Amino acid sequence: MKEVLMQVDNLKKYFPITGGVFQRTVGHVKAVDDVSFRIHRGESLGLVGESGCGKSTIGRTILRLNEKTEGTVLFQGNDIYSLPKEELRRMRPKMQIVFQDPFSSLNPRIKVGQAIGEALYDHGVTDSKIIRERVLETMNICGLASYQYDRYPHEFSGGQRQRIGIARALIMNPEFIVADEPVSALDVSIQAQIINLLSDLQRDKQLTYLFISHDLSVVEHLCDRVGVMYLGSMVEMSSTEELFRNPLHPYTKALMSAIPIPDPTYKRDRIVLQGDIPSPANPPSGCKFHTRCPIASDICKQQAPEYRDVGNDHLVACHFV
Amino acid sequence: MSADVMPITENKNTKAKAVDTPWKTAMRRFTRNKLAVIGFIMIVFMFILCFIGPLFSPHNLFDYSLKNKNLAPNGTYWLGTDKLGRDILLRMMLAGRISLLVGLVATCITVMIGATLGAVAGFYGKLVDNLIMRVADIFMALPSLPILIILGAVLSDLKVHPSSRIYYLMVIIGVLNWTTLARLVRGQILTLREQEFMQATEALGLKDKRKIFKHLLPNTIPVIIVAATLSVAGAILSESALSFLGIGVVPPTPSWGNMISAANNLIDFRKRPWLWIPPGMCILITSVAINLIGDGLRDALDPKTKK
Amino acid sequence: MAKDLVEFRNLETHFQTTAGTVKAVDNVSFIIREGETLCVVGESGCGKSVTAMSLMQLIESPPGKIVGGEILFEGEDLLKLSKREMSRIRGNQISMIFQEPMSSLNPVLTIGNQISEPLMLHMLLDRKAAKKRAIELINLVGISRPEKIFDSYPHELSGGMRQRIMIAIALSCDPKLLIADEPTTALDVTIQAQILDLMRDIKQKLNTSILLITHDLGVVAEMADYVVVMYAGKVIEEAPVLELFQDPQHPYTKGLLKAKPIINQKQERLYSIPGQVPNPIDLEDNCHFHDRCEFCMDICKVKQPPFRSHGKDTHKSACWLYEEEREVL
Amino acid sequence: MKQYIIRRLLQMIPTLIGISIIIFAISAMVPGDYITARANPNMSIEKQEQLRSIYGLDKPDYQRYFIWAGNMVKGNFGDSMQHKQPVTTVINTYVWNSFIIGIFALFFSWFIAMITGIFSAKFQYSFFDKIVTLLVFICMSLPSFFIGLLLIKFFALDMKLFPVGGMITSGLNARGWEYFIDVLKHSFLPIMVLTMLSTGSLTRYFRTSMLEVIRQDYIRTARAKGLKERTVIFKHAFRNAMIPAITLLGFELPGLFGGAMILEQIFVWPGVGHIYLNSINMRDYPFMLGFTIFLAMLTLLGNLLADVLYGIADPRIRLK
Fold first, then answer.
1. pLDDT tens per residue across span C184-218
2. pLDDT of residue B72
3. In this complex, do C194 and A189 lie within 8 Å of one another by their Cβ atoms?
4. Segment D195-216 mean pLDDT
């Protein structure tokens, strides 16, 4: 088995809801509710789920971009939540993030070359010539032309901005990159370019990805393993091949069947889930999925199913598996 | 819908185009706004009039000549003379220096206090933020005109010398106004902090210094510029109101406000409008001009208004 | 074959910007037939929404303006109607739903009020009759407890529910044509499946024609009878749905079909169309796709290809690859 | 809602304490006091001292603060030295005169601002819109005293359309209708000036707010329903544009009761602001302090009112 790069145990992230006369906390949005997983060096782990399932919050919490509520996060064996501020800052280049929104992720007042290169200054490279060289080299890798060095972000299209975001993450020679819905805001023809860029980079630089997306087909294309989330919990996780061949959790099955296939002759056997996604502030009892589950029974309402290995490294949380 | 029509894409032919910095774009937008440009011309005119005009005046501020007192506007005294026979135009220009200066310096003080406290509150959050904002609440609820009036009266009672009163006034007006700016700056910083590029600075492990000076401040400056511009007008109006009541800038130092207080004398008010209408018009023009500029700047600096 | 319901003839909708003219819709012609679902597919900025908004005459002016062409609705040119006549057709015979269910409903009016409005306006129902009909409609779009929903405000409903309400509003006056502008783009997949189901259902029950605007070829395959592909303001290909997916002609259509990963069909590497959509300002008179096209010839750079069928009557495209004349003139 | 109001009222306490300290500290800086201000050369030093101790002016500042603050908590704002009456009575006597011009100006400025705001937003970039914009800027920049003086000069002195100042013609012993007309004539100019002063920024606010709303998706939906433009603007857009504006209504509260000091002074209008300016000349501490606190309380209550109104107007906000 390969080396574990990122180890997440019982991670919880609750956002408080306040109320009452003194604005005391009266409840929590359980964005991430007791999630554990490992990411091995060189692999790419996909996280899928619908809006509000907590996948993006996980991405930010394991990088300590927001504070956790409970649990541990070990990166290369270091607990990133017990590191002092300065040490954490020094470690940051090793773990990077690419954001979803190509517009808000770049500072409108900073030239692209500077945006990509500025982190080098703060991590000990002070020779501006070297920095410029490295920026240009990285821009080249990411498919940006050198004349764009002195341009401002507003002059770029969504796809190019996403390339800039990738270059900014890449220049620090990271080992681990969280890609938070990096292609959701892009058009199909541009999506393919970015997906290809990400997979080329992984191959050339032995990168490890946590790839967050709501699009199962993109995850299938790019990831080695996939975790499926629903309302803050991991409901199923296994290797991509296994998951798509043999999905076990009823939610995973429904999610897969809901994706429209671009083939008019395709015979659909769709499981249409009834109702809406419940609010993560007030999740259902027992198995959180029971309100929409086609096979739910009494036990699902009362008891949360155990998240267990059913063999072949296939983890699932359902009473009926 | 506009999102569907206008993707900002780049053509090959833009390769040769010069880089358009955000400031240049703002300048271009500003100069395209007719009202703002008119405001700018008006304010430049006022400055030239007040600071350079007196140099060309044939009269002297201390030309007391009772035989020339209360003259209506004529060839020698374009705007007439007052009861001591002094030239109104000259006095008005010199008064303008004082009024404009009070407005500018008071605003500088406002900006220094307001922007610093707002930025500190927004950046550090938590306890510091709470503390600063509670103090701001107190200042917000203070009725500003009554307080200014009391303070003006205090200055009179402390027998502050007329020539140094203007400095006290600058400080008082400046200090009382800090909350608006502090709130704006804090709000802007809180908004910025939610933006993904600020999260990126954290993820990249940038130093706090760079985060503040390269990322936060440059994006906050537009807000400060607009608020500061508008607050110059406010400060000038406050000063003139106080001076009109006789508790701001007091004679012999001329200011537009205390020149208007000539109107308190019924005869002067009725029969000698040249004593008080010109300085009133100056206040009006200056404040309209500043408001126009401020509004133009707001539109020019706001990234949301794409043109 | 069914009767023509709407015919776009050489529609031109332009937007004036400080940088130049954007021909958002440039000489677009196609036909929507009765009882048919026609999908307009393309990427952002291709003019698909503007085409629909031109049909509704809801183009914001300035900067936008319909500068040429005709839009025939049951044989009558909508562009020649007065404002008043047009507003009698809008929401009545032609209705529309939008991409953002979260912001498309007025937050300060109750759901009931918003559904009743067109009923009282176009069907001339009184308040009571309108309420009765509104509750039926809420039921029709698959929401339980319609009486309760009637009195709620939009913010109390989820995105999926709101889109159902939008559909109810659109259906209130039995329109002949329902325009759906990216109706599921803002929704989660499981909710998207519900809404698409609902739309299919409704089309069967009410025999309404649908003009569906989308960027998702999966949705197209599921919903469409007939497909129109747009790129940079122009129609570049149109065909019945099977025909388009099985035998796409235009290189752009081909590229789009290959660029999207498909579930359970793992490829080593995605096909990707290089480059990006051209700047829409002051485009030249050539094939707008030429600089991204792997089959680009000299003529593509200087002359627009004609839009016509190459073989089957119903399948048209605009590409020099299928033309005899290839010499640069 | 009730809980929310209680919480907000509780939160006001520390703010009020802060305000009272600042106000008291400022007034304590004033050298001299009521006794010296009324300096009667015939009054002996002993007599002065005696009066001081009666009024409690001889105690150290902090003690005076606590006495004053303690009394205020009990609702006792002290007695105005100048009027020889409790401060609350003085305020109550004159505040309604201020209220008369305040409420009319409020009504007119909102009315004018709404209409012009809506139409200049509806016809953005039109000639009408440009004129409105320019007028708005002029109104926003008017120095109140100067415009007041100009109007008095032209309308009252030169054209003799209106009385020069005051609230009733002196010596007139009119009652009923005649009295009403007389007050109306006197109040016309101050109301006009006050209306001009607040219409500018209000119009601008309505215009911006309307412009924002008109761009929203639900306005497009309303148009797509085939609604008449009138319905779209007045039912769908206007209601939404009003919500943020309703908040402003709360902020009008202090202005309504606080009196427009300078204007009342110029128009010799016997409002509470006018009395306040006089009290400063007289160094009438209890009144100065009491009235300033009164204004601060109005401001805080106005803020609360603004938030509550917002919660009522907007179904999306549920106040907790």
1. 888 888 889 899 989 998 888 888 999 999 999 99
2. 76
3. no
4. 90
**Does D232 map to a domain?**
yes
pLDDT interval class at A251 (50, 70, 90):
very high
What HEC string does chain B produce? Answer: CHHHHCCCCCCHHHHHCCCCCHHHHHHHHHHHCHHHHHHHHHHHHHHHHHHHHHHHCCCCCCCCCHHHCCCCCCCCCCCCECCCCCEHHHHHHHHHHHHHHHHHHHHHHHHHHHHHHHHHHHHHCHHHHHHHHHHHHHHHHCCHHHHHHHHHHHHHHCCCCHHHHHHHHHHHHHHHCHHHHHHHHHHHHHHHHHCHHHHHHHHCCCCHHHHHHHHHHHHHHHHHHHHHHHHHHHHHHHHHHHHHCCCCCCCCCCCHHHHHHHHHCHHHHHHCHHHCHHHHHHHHHHHHHHHHHHHHHHHHHCCCCCC
- Residue D244 in domain: yes
Q: How far is C106 from chain D (nearest CA, A)?
A: 5
Q: What architecture is the B23-57+82-301 domain classified under in CATH?
A: Orthogonal Bundle (1.10)
B188-238 confidence digits (pLDDT tens):
998 888 889 999 999 999 998 888 888 988 889 988 998 999 899 999 999
Tell me, yes or no, whether C19 and C72 share the same domain: yes
Within 8 A of C152 by CB-CB distance, chain D residues are none
Query: Is residue D297 included in any domain, yes or no?
Result: no
For residue A32, what is the enclosing H or E element? strand A24-40
| Contact call for residues D137 and B42 (beta carbons, < 8 A) | no
Q: Do C245 and A51 touch (CB under 8 A)?
A: no
Domain that holds residue D152: 91-287
Domain count of the fold of chain D: 1
Find the CB nearest C87 among D216, D226, D235. Answer: D226
State which residues form the domain around C132: 102-172
Domain assignment present for residue C205? The answer is yes
Q: Which of C190, C246, C260 should one mutate to test binding to chain A, selecting the residue with the greatest count of A CBs within 10 A?
A: C190
Which residues of A fall below an 8 Å CB-CB distance to C?
Answer: 50-51, 157, 159-160, 187-193, 195-196, 199, 214, 216-218, 220-221, 244, 254-266, 268, 270, 272-274, 276-277, 292
ipTM of the complex: 0.84
Residues 10-69 of D with CB under 8 A from A: 10
pTM for the complete prediction?
Answer: 0.85
Among C273, C290, C308, the domain boundary falls at C273
Q: CATH number for the domain including D191?
A: 1.10.3720.10
Of all residues in chain C, the one with the smallest CA distance to B307 is C18
Inspect the interface and report whether the beta carbons of A189 and C43 lie closer than 8 Å.
yes
The CATH number linked to C89 is 3.40.50.300
Mean pLDDT of A130-143: 92
Subunit contact D239:C91, Cβ cutoff 8 A: no
Residue B53 or residue B256, greater confidence? B256
**Same-domain pairing of C264 and C179:** yes
Asked if D141 is an interface residue toward chain B (Cβ–Cβ < 8 A), one would say yes
Within a domain: D312: no
C326: confidence class by pLDDT, cuts 50, 70, 90: low
Instruction: Sort out which chain B residues have CB atoms less than 8 A from C278's CB and list them.
Output: 9, 11
Nearest CA in chain D to B137: D15
Tell me how close the Cα of C267 comes to any Cα of chain A, in angstroms: 7
Q: How many domains does chain C have?
A: 2
Of C126, C150, C172, the residue that ends a domain is C172
Residues C72 and C134 in one domain: no
| Token code pair at residue B193 | 């902090």
Same domain, C214 and C190: yes
Look at residue B9 in the predicted model and tell me its pLDDT: 39
Q: In the prediction, which pLDDT does D34 show?
A: 59
Decide if D227 and C104 are in contact by the 8 Å CB cutoff. no
pLDDT for B3:
34
Asked whether residue C17 is domain-assigned, the answer is: yes
- Asked if residue C243 is part of any domain, the answer here is yes
Examine the domain organization and report whether C88 and C116 are in the same domain. no
Same domain, C213 and C76: yes
Residue D57 in this model has a pLDDT that exceeds 70:
no
Q: Which residue of D has its CA nearest to A22?
A: D7
Q: Do A109 and B218 touch (CB under 8 A)?
A: yes
